[in-house]
Design a protein that fits this description.
The protein is 58% helix and 0% strand. The chain is mainly alpha-helical. The radius of gyration is 15 Å and the shape is elongated. The two termini are 30 Å apart.
Length: 71
């Protein structure tokens, strides 16, 4: 299911899980962004690219946690 539709389909479940403080039931999408990668191949080492992706993912997850769990 494409990215915007999956989130819409899970919205009711996500809201209920957040309201019940059931973080373990919150969806954790993975892989949906693979088709959205636009960075051209470069001479940058894979390690650098992966580290940047991990840092960005951590920031996004922390923002989501604050928004939905109120941490």
């Amino acid at each position: 299911m494409p990215t915007p539709y999956q989130g819409n389909a899970m919205d009711e479940i996500r809201r209920a899980a957040a309201a019940a403080d059931r973080v373990d039931l919150l969806p954790v999408p993975g892989g949906q962004v693979a088709g959205m990668l636009t960075e051209e191949k470069s001479a940058r080492p894979a390690k650098e690219i992966v580290e940047r992706m991990v840092q960005e993912a951590a920031q996004i997850l922390n923002n989501m946690r604050s928004q939905y769990v109120g941490a």
